[in-house]
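quick q for whoever's on today - can somebody do inverse folding on this one?? i tried earlier but teh output was garbage lol. tokens:
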């Protein structure tokens, strides 16, 4: 009997010890996912990732809203659209109505062009006079402001100013006073047939069915293209545009009314995982963007430090590199729509929502156990090399988060493959997180976890082997789920982190060589590749002129040690070989390598790409507006530096 009691006591003690050991190894983990989908008040965005087609890839699609009743010109204020027909009769439409219908308004005389600002209507009459009227009147009584305004083809009222486009391609800004109106020429507006305004932006429709945007308050700036009839998502011809209820509306040549929205799968997100042990917190963030630059990431990390006290080197931000996200950094050698990100999208959507995702993850820290598992996948293949050089790191690393009662809570998974297909038809113009979103959704549906976080690995030279990204995502999800079915390793230990920079010397081309290159490519104006090369040459010549030509390119290497799991994040588009070589440095540890971290400003090739002058080793540097090319020993330099630092 005594032996039985002693045995039971031993079991209880061992159980208590096991519980204490488990609790001692336990981390605090919080996760969060926040949408980074653009708001429809940002009327159209350029998709990043492809330089083709040369006309651009824009997110705008038109949704039919009903009959336009012969309306030929319209303007908007609040949630009301005002319109006129070819006889000059005045109408209005409530955009929020269940069945919007144009209703006639009594008016003292016919007009041919219309504008509205708050409670004031402006119009150009058939006698070329400028009129205004108070909207609060039941019967619109027009009052003359100015006469002899010949040649106006579009009129707009915005922020207490009038804007007029003329048949001679002029753009004028007018200030209304008690003495009349004073016009100032602020630039060009070529072949405009309709204008709209929103906040501090002007929008123009031209006769070739192009949509354009420019800011107010600045003279002589270029318009930026934001849309055209691409035959898929924007597949109607239109004759006028207006803004109401924070949305862009159009009238089709078919006399139908349309409202604009983004063509989107609705799955762009920023997901964050915060992990704490003792006094140290590390944060891992996966963002559905093609890329970003160091300044944006620095700003985000600085704000998190101000809010949460987490240092920059403890926050790793990774881009999934989907080729179907809006432009989020400058592509200065590309065609004009790609050269700059939309400031509203970048500063009012992307930046604050990444900060929100991180903040929410930190605020939701709870006790949890972390486990590491790994497998391989067959979703990708080397897109540029042949034979023994056609390497592919097929590794898939998985981190699972379990609550103290062993309930699966969250999953992080990492592999390296470009999210690029499909790039044809409607999908070419559709916002999408591509295969990572498919994988995330399947994993969540099959496991019931709250959050899944995808990190892009070293995918620089790896493309999917399947054209359908849904199939790619399904295969990857299946591979991740298999890891979850097997025993995985409990992570134990402390948290450490570091960021190192490696300055790689480069040799910029001489001025003479750049000028020759420009001259050679200028002969093929209209060719997308040649035009890109000319723009690159102009950028480089300007660098020489200003004395700012760099002679080094930085590579950032970030290391997070989460217990016995080492996560290394490389800046740039690292090719697959980087993952394979860096992992060899710690053969007895759990090591994961991500590319596209913190700064994505060029490819990071290996010697084989540079020698063969593949896209990754040569032509991509022109697309990225880089002043020079990495030396052939770049891979050895990066790997040996990582080994020496041994973070």
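ok took a stab at it. sequence:
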């Amino acid at each position: 009997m005594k032996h039985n009691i002693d045995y039971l006591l031993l079991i209880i003690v061992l159980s208590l010890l096991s519980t204490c050991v488990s609790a001692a190894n336990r981390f605090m983990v919080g996760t969060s996912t926040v949408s980074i989908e653009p708001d429809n008040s940002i009327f159209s965005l350029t998709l990043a990732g492809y330089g083709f087609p040369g006309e651009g890839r824009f997110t705008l699609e038109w949704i039919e809203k009903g009959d336009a009743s012969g309306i030929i010109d319209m303007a908007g204020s609040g949630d009301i659209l005002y319109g006129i027909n070819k006889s000059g009769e005045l109408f209005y439409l409530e955009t929020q109505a269940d069945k919007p219908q144009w209703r006639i308004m009594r008016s003292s005389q016919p007009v041919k062009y219309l504008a509205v600002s708050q409670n004031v209507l402006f119009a150009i009459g058939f006698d070329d006079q400028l009129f205004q009227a108070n909207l609060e009147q039941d019967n619109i009584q027009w009052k003359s402001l100015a006469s002899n305004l010949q040649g106006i083809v579009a009129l707009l009222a915005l922020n207490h100013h009038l804007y007029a486009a003329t048949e001679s391609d002029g753009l004028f800004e007018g200030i209304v006073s008690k003495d009349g109106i004073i016009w100032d020429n602020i630039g060009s507006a070529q072949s405009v047939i309709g204008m709209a305004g929103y906040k501090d932006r002007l929008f123009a429709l031209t006769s070739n069915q192009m949509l354009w945007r420019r800011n107010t308050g600045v003279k002589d700036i270029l318009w930026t293209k934001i849309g055209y009839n691409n035959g898929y998502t924007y597949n109607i011809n239109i004759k006028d545009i207006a803004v109401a209820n924070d949305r862009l509306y159009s009238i089709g040549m078919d006399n139908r009314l349309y409202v604009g929205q983004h063509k989107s799968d609705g799955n762009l997100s920023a997901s964050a995982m915060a992990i704490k042990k003792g006094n140290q917190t590390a944060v891992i963030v996966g963002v559905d963007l093609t890329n970003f630059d160091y300044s944006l990431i620095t700003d985000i990390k600085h704000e998190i430090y101000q809010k949460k006290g987490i240092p920059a080197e403890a926050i790793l931000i990774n881009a999934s590199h989907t080729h179907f996200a809006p432009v989020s950094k400058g592509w200065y050698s590309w065609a004009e729509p790609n050269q700059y990100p939309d400031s509203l999208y970048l500063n009012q959507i992307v930046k604050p929502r990444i900060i929100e995702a991180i903040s929410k993850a930190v605020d939701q820290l709870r006790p949890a156990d972390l486990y590491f598992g790994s497998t391989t996948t067959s979703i990708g293949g080397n897109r540029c090399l042949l034979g023994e050089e056609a390497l592919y790191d097929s590794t898939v690393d998985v981190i699972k988060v379990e609550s103290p009662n062993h309930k699966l809570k969250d999953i992080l998974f990492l592999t390296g493959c470009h999210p690029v297909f499909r790039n044809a038809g409607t999908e070419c113009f559709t916002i999408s997180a591509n295969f990572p979103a498919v994988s995330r959704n399947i994993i969540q549906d099959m496991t019931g976890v709250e959050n899944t976080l995808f990190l892009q690995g070293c995918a620089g030279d790896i493309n999917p082997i399947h054209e359908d990204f849904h199939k790619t995502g399904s295969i990857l999800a299946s591979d991740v789920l298999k890891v979850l079915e097997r025993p995985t390793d409990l992570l134990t230990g402390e948290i450490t982190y570091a960021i190192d920079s490696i300055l790689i010397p480069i040799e910029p081309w001489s001025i003479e060589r750049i000028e020759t290159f420009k001259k050679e490519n200028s002969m093929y104006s209209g060719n997308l590749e040649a035009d890109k090369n000319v723009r690159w040459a102009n950028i480089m010549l300007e660098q020489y002129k200003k004395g700012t030509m760099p002679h080094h390119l930085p590579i950032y290497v970030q290391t997070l040690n989460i217990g016995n799991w080492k996560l290394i994040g490389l800046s740039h588009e690292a090719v697959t070989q980087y993952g394979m070589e860096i992992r060899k440095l710690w053969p007895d540890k759990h090591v994961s390598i991500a590319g596209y971290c913190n700064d994505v400003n060029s490819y990071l090739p290996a010697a084989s790409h540079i020698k063969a002058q593949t896209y990754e080793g040569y032509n991509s540097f022109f697309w990225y507006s880089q002043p020079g090319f990495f030396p052939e020993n770049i891979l050895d330099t990066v790997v040996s530096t990582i080994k020496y630092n041994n973070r």
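fwiw The chain is about 25% helix and 35% strand. also Confidence is low (pLDDT under 50) at residues 9-21. so keep that in mind when u check it
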